Amino acid sequence: MRGGPPQRVESTAGQRTPAGFVGRERERGLMDDLLVAGADGGAALLLWGEPGIGKTALLDYAAQQAGRRATVLRARGIETETVLPFAVLGDLLMPHSSLFRDLPEAQRSALEGSLALSGQAPGNPYAACMGALNVLAALGDRHPVVVLVDDLHWVDPSSQRVLLFVARRLSCERVALALSSREDHGESGERRSIPAVQVGGLATAECAALLAEAGRRVAPAVLGELVRISGGNPLALREMASGLTPEQARGEQPLPAPPSLGRHLERAWAARMDDLPDTARRALAVLAASRSTAAGTLRKALEVAGLSLEALSPAEQAGLVRATLDGLDFHHPVLRPLVLTRAPLAHRFAAFHALAAVSTGALHAWYRAAASAGPDEEAAAALAEAALEARRRSAYGESALAWRRAAELTPEAAVRAERLHRAASDALLSGSPYGPPWCEEALRITPDAAMRADIQALLGRMYTWKGEPARAYGLLLDAADAVRATDPARACVLLAEATAPARLDGHVPAAIRVAEQSVALAAPRGRDRWLSQTMLGAALVMAGQVARGTAMLRAADRDGAGDPVRDQPVYAIAGQAWSRAEEFARGRRLLNTAVESARRHSAVGVLAFTLAVRGELETRIGQWASARGDLTESLRWAEELGQLTCVSYTLYGLARLEALRGDRVAVEEHVAHARRECGTHGIGCQEFHLTAVLGLAALTHGDHETAAGQLEQTLALAREQGVGNPEVVPFASDLAEAQLRAGHPDRADRVTAWLEERARETGLASAEAAAARCRGLLAPTPEEAEAHFARALDAHGRTTGPFDLARTQLCEAEVLRRHRRPAAARAPLTAALACFQRLGAEPWARRAASELAATGGTVTAGRPTAGDALSLLTPQEFQVSRAVARGLNNVEAAASLFVSRKTVEAHLTRIYRKLQVRSRTDLTRLLTAAGLLD
């Protein structure tokens, strides 16, 4: 049994220290705070520490403190149950399955399919995650809910995914979630966004009280030595004290000097095991091997092995096992692996054979596999069936483990390679890090060209998103070369895929080259043609060959089509390319289609990248509140899914937005975050992005020398990487202005000449406007300056970019005032100031206001606009407001944003208050006025 059924616990209000509980003031205070926060809205906490340190005792404390006013759901991970899909989630939710019927259909179907309550496949694992969140929220409508899960490191991967998903989204559901684990995953792990606390050892006085409570009296000097050796670990302390002779307890004989705490505990428990009769040791092996501690299952297995439950009585008397509500379990979880490790091979095999004889389905397959000493195709085939069943339930972590063990038992190399490939594929879907080594192992044993191509392609996709684009590019090219002659259609797709890591690695010419090869292999019409031409068009636009690139993008739409769910990353790349070609409306339509399709189908695999691209576009066209919402959500998904490539790109987007707004500290924090997490992975384009945004932040604050130094690096990287489109990262005008204001007009002139050449080559109005603005700043006479600024304003009229337009107006006014024409400067300054105020670009607004005051103009606060009001919203509140304004009800909005209905309701209350609106209709009007709804 994993921890008993969900329970309602008797109230202990005001009881700060339950009977039998020693110390832990800090940790108990944190648990009290968690319960209060959970009852008020929602909260989660991860306790971590070594075995025996007291994590379970703290969960017991929380259960006791929760009292009658809370519904307590409790479960525990068991090492031997990690291969059973959704086992722990079932323990928590099955007693409340009557609530499933109130879920949205997609969530109900997914959750019931995951828990094997229906014959339907769940479809998408995130729909099941949402279903679990909403079940807990529904429970929270009745009473506060306290969910306690012990030994998270042994919880099955599918349940782990759901629990971590829920933990990251608790805010308004009246749910407190406490997890315990041996591991600390820190800032780099998937649990990064969950508050965590390490449970350390007890103080000396607390250790003394613990021993006194257990009836163990030791001399002060002995106590000090026990505390030193045990590190204050309560379990170790008790076990060590119980093994002392009376003379050692009094300090009259020296204590044993174990080499380590773990070895000491192992030796103490091993001694008790060795004293047991043979039947008890054999029965212990069955208990340790069993994935169930229920008495009925255990009794049957013991009978097959020629034993009975009574055989475990000596182990119970020795303190190794204890009675539970429905069976027997080990006194401490670490005893289970210790028993299996110490059991003779014959005892282990006999135990697994007995358990296999009384089990069915996946359990039978795993027990049979455990009883196999070498290659066994029948056992492997049974595990393969278990893997397929787990995959059908979207339990990809468990299916990956089943495929991996099946491969180990497979005698034929070709079949073993295929099963390793499937294991790696499911590992990728589950977020497991084991996919690459399994692929490498498969490559070593299969000579088949087609199979090798499939494996290399999978590896390439893994490394593309995990932040190793150079390696991904090489693998995808090798895969394409292997099948080019025999399967040109497959080679076409592989080459098209290779363009993405080539671009990420900073090799735009290589991306064009492989995309051209892909187009050459594509059929005249169909999806492959659409894919290859889209990737070529995007690479050409990035290189600055805008006319050729947009022609290729149009040809792609003429010759084929993709699916916005399956091909979400291609839609995002196409939307990005159209935006960089200044076809903003077309790009945004593609991105909106991809985002909404991903939300509707819970296809979150590439949602982070799509949101980041849309956020970059929104920044460009002046919809900064919308950009902040998309980029913040993108970063959450990218970190949650371990997509380091997207983490880097999204942090650049957030940093650029903050640089424009004038928050230099936030810019530097985002850049440091990107370099810390992604800098060692070889994402070639990262420094191109980051130096540009650091330069912009420095320029915004008048630190011109620093800005010039950073931006000169950006220019060098643009040339080195073949980025000929100045809109990919709009840095050149920043560099020219920084060099000019730092007193280097010759350098500014050279940069401006480069920007002018790029404007002519690309035909981009934004580049033309930026180059003309720079020429206006460099002009020696007011007449020449006026002519250049006139050309800049004309170019601005052919594109969309309110910030850049206001910047040109500011620069024009500064030049006019310098040439003693203050009256002429007032109109552009007034327009620029209004735009900067509306956008929230505070340093730029201050600069414009100062210039306006110097001309004798009147500086007034900007009129409130819809954009001003929306800037009051948090990123998630903005996303909720946009979903509701699109016509979604609360349930639909919650499903779309992967939060609970309660969270949407709470956000809407705050949104109405902040925006001073009373209805969804008013909210829709406000967002429409701000240009945020298509």
Counting DSSP E segments of at least 2 residues, the number of strands comes to 8
Major sheet attributes: 6 strands, mixed
Tally of alpha and pi helices: 47
What is the arithmetic mean of pLDDT? 89
Strand order across the largest sheet = 1-3-4-5-2-6
Account of the protein in words:
The structure is a single chain. The two termini are 54 Å apart. It is globular and about 105 Å long. The longest helix is centred in the first third of the chain and has 18 residues, at 125-142. Strands 1-3-4-5-2-6 form a six-stranded mixed sheet, with helices on both faces. A two-stranded antiparallel sheet has the order 7-8. The protein is built from 47 helices and eight strands. The model is unreliable at 1-16 and 185-189 (pLDDT under 50). Helix 6 links the parallel strand 4 and strand 5. Helix 3 packs across helix 6 (157-169) and helix 22 (449-466) packs antiparallel against helix 23 (469-483). It is mainly alpha-helical and 934 residues long.
